[in-house]
């Protein structure tokens, strides 16, 4: 397989420079994580806007790369002549960390700790906050039964408390800035848009508040929020 000739996605989202990493994404929390890693690491890449509309994420061209019909997804055309494709934001972060040699320690203990917090975000913080958004801001907000909202609010508070504890005495979740922080930060920022900060008692988690301020002060974070650009 060679890129772009053998990749249908290129017919719909053509690469201008097929020699660099191709990112197919949208600036949601899961998308921003990967744009952020690309910006922080300095790897050369080309972003393509794939909206969340079925006409994009369920198109045959996108499904040929990301069969789970979700952004983000990536093609790295430069690996030993054989392109590498990856979907799932956590897997992409690990791939890019290994490729760049940045933001994931090679020390076994530090690496395990970083992956632990990355998986905590992937399996806990992201899905729970995503459901919280659905039941408070999006279509689920119309549902009268209060139990889903309560469940995800309580789970959100629990997770914020866990993170707050982990951040005690530290700037970043494993000490040095890593792919775990790049995964966690965008999901904390999503709470503003959901309008759930007060209901979660966000201000009481003072370590998390300071952490998010530090995160948002990074120039790459500000850039990544608009990569790829919304249509
Ligand atoms: N576990 C996946 C989740 C990705 C995900 O939920 N993507 C959403 C946007 S944040 C999406 O593409 N939704 C489109 C759809 O479900 O149709 C990851 O982390 O990459």
TrEMBL record:
PANTHER family: DISULFIDE-BOND OXIDOREDUCTASE YFCG, GLUTATHIONE S-TRANSFERASE-RELATED. Its EC number is 1.8.4.-. The keyword Oxidoreductase applies. This is Disulfide-bond oxidoreductase YfcG. It holds the Pfam family GST_N. GO terms for molecular function: oxidoreductase activity. Belongs to the GST superfamily. Residues 107-231 form the GST C-terminal domain. PROSITE patterns: GST_CTER, GST_NTER. It is an enzyme of class 1 (oxidoreductase). It comes from Thalassovita mediterranea. Residues 18-104 form the GST N-terminal domain. It comes from the Bacteria. Keywords: Oxidoreductase. InterPro entries: Glutathione-S-Trfase_C-like, Glutathione-S-Trfase_C_sf, Glutathione_S-Trfase, Glutathione_S-Trfase_N, GST_C, Thioredoxin-like_sf.
